[in-house]
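Researcher: Structure prediction, please.
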Amino acid sequence: MSLHPRRRSLGMPVLTVVWLTAVWVLLWGDLAVGTVLVGAGLAVLVTLALPLPAVEFTGHVHPLSLLYLAYRFVVDLVVASAQVAALALTPGRVARPAVVRVQLRSTSDLYLTFTAQLCSLVPGSVVVEAHRTTGMLYIHVLDLALAHGVHEARRHVLDTEARVLRALASPAELAAAGLTRNPRDTAEATG
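Model: Predicted structure follows.
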């Protein structure tokens, strides 16, 4: 099942064309008819010349889990921003960076992408490599002390993946990953 079956039937992803047109207009800073038409024409050309593969999505969106995912992302964002600012403003403090290898539970490209993006958006960490065939992420951590060590850095990524799975995965995908919908029922419960 394609993530967007109705848009696929139109021959091109309509929302992608609209989005690319909006970006074009914003880049030019002019809402003139000509700018919109050229942007739309280029957007159609790009989507036809460089089509993206269909993304398989067999899960279901779970609104409460999705809200919790968003809440925890904002908390992680605020905490990490404060930690990075403190690290930058502390005289004489030298960061101890590291690259941490994390084996994800799911093999889905969609969940790997969501997990990698959420981890990269949090200050102090960035995904430097992702292997889609093995589900392996390599995360660069700004400071091991801020991350509370390699084990905790790895656990943070796995907790993020668990929240993504709980928000979007089907019961079968959750079971394959060794998770349940309720984090309290699972050994990998997030704090």
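Model: Strands lie at 98-103, 125-131, 136-141.
Researcher: Thanks, that helps.
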